[in-house]
Amino acid sequence: MHYKKRPLKHLFILPALFAICTAKAHSEQDDLLNLSVEDLLNVEVISVAKKAKSLNDSPAAIYVISHEDIKRVGATSIPEALRLAPGLNVARIDSNKWAVSARGFNGRFANKLLVLIDGRNTYTRTFAGVYWENQDIMLEDIDRIEVIRGPGATLWGANAVNGVINIITKHSADTQGGLLAAGGGTEEQGFGSFRYGTHVNTDTTARAYIKGFKRDESTLRSGGEAGDDWDKVQGGFRLDSQISESDSLTIQGDAYRSILNQQTTQAQLSSPFGSIFNESIDSFGGNLLARQQHTFSSTSDYSLQVFYDFYERDETFLKESRQVLDIDFQHRFSFLDWNDVVWGAGYRYNHDQFRFSETMVLSPPSRNDQLFSAFIQDEITLLDNKLWLTLGSKVEYNDYSGFEVQPTARLMWALHNKHRLWTAVSRAVRTPSRTEQDMRLLELVRPGPVAIFLDDSDEFSSEELISYELGYRTTAIDNVSVDFTAFYNEYNQLRSVETAAPVPKPGYIEVIQSFANNNRLQTYGLEIATVWQMLEWWRWDANYSLLKMEFDGQKIPGEIGLGPQQQVSVRSALSLQNNINLDVFFRFVDRNRTTGSLIIREAKHYVSLDIRLAWHPINDIELSLTGQNLLAEHHMENQQEIFVQPTEIDRGMYGKFVWQF
Question: How many domains does the chain fold into?
């Protein structure tokens, strides 16, 4: 019998909480609690303006997840860390798949969120989204994660519709020496990582890492093992060189291999018209990036970045390989003492190759496509240290929908040194994916038999968004910060599914569904992020988000997730005597619905509690124990749109050892 199937009758971390809280605390132990609430708002971010700017002065709904936040919450993956941000919809589908989006539309194939890792775009043209199981780095090397809710298309391009996630790793100069981490438990059965950094010469530093893990299978909604256990090995490096006083160079890369298991559901024309079977997905890939930066002055610089990315996946319904070459240039300069201009241009080349199955065909099986882009953005100072207007636009040309223009206007008003008010109006588009224009899928077979096919559409075009945002930040109350955002979004030409009349075929009746742009949708809501430094050694973070979605008409949304209406998270971080840290993370997530194969699937609301207890016996060693999803033996967070059996996420506990030397 697996340990995870036994209910945890004694949460032995909780007695430790009461014992520890009687001890005398001190404020020198942890970087997280050494930052005041003003310091947290003055953290520099680059994702809003493609230049360093304080979070407090950024006219966008942005949230920063720090390295210390990731460590102290006990995250074992990037999506787990993203749960800390308000307004993000993060759900685990099974042991090896995630659904991540911003402001709705959440599902396995979510397609309105742009994800960057050190400037490398992780977007796949296959479904216009992200394979989250492919995106992994050594979490100890992350400097911060900048999360923008709302459009970022003017700077980052198409598909930055509802948000941008920018994962930024540490400079290799900040990761010198060695780090060894290892652990295991009930769900995270075993994991380990090793990184070493060194000086190559006076002006050059480098690091290399290797990591791997084995994760246990989860539980089917119907009971029993889900057969979705997962193991992965990955390695990589980063080199940073200060070539001259004005020039720097960064070269980095990663490579991985992964085995993902799952129970697959596949439609078939013969009785019983569908089959369920276990399969192993062999997935591997890698990337290589080079970035050169030149500084002319404190107000002028440029950067040139080139990256190559490839991956291959071998699944029953489709074998896919993809290669991407991306070139990006940007230049920043100031003039007239009140303009700060950023402009740039980019080129991306995609090559893919697909092998078909009985249920899915892509025609043509291989395709090359290109993307050309250019952008300009000007931050205009209207009143010194009081009022700023930002205007900009991006122009793109792609092989699927042609020219796209995505402008934005943002206004920031500093009412007082403790108050910031901002507003923005933006247009963004989500361009068609390869499967939307070139796929034929046997989606469902009903008794009769009636075969329902989902067909491509050459006429399917870009989805459009006009977004209106209003935000307010304040530290008017001592030791408390509040970040409030309200938004209203109008989506036009949203994806719909159109059904043709049934056509008799030899042995079955054929029903063709095809993608179209006949849906309209309005969403509105609010997001609140608060930080309360209750004591020098005790900090509270509380986030709340509300999302309302209203479709025009009764068109069936085409294979999408809708996202939870309400989310609440509360986090307590304590630093106590004897080098002990205690973190408690509570979440409430409303129900989430997805549509696929003419079926609306629902994951009910759930509550979750994670607790992490860490001890530093000496400065360079940390021992920790983390309990995840402690309030229920297992719960469902999201159902994949098609192909995979409904799965529930299990309660788990793991221990971890970290040694820096």
Answer: 1
